[in-house]
Amino acid sequence: MDVISLLERDHETVEGLFRRYESLGARDSDRRTEVVHELIRELSVHAAIEEQFLYPQIKEALPDGEALAEEALQEHQEAKEVLADLDRMDAGDAGFDAKVRSLIADVRHHVDEEETELLPRFAAAVPDERLEQLGNLMEKAKAVAPTRPHPHAPSTPPGNLAAGPIAAVIDRVRDTVSGRTEKSSSTRKKTSSRSTSKKTAARGGSASRKTSARKTTSKKSTRRSSSGARRAKGPVIDVTTDPKGGWRAEKRGADRASARSDSKREVVKRARELAKSQGGRLVIRGQDGRIQEERSYGSDPARRAG
Question: For the whole model, what pTM was predicted?
Answer without folding.
Answer: 0.59
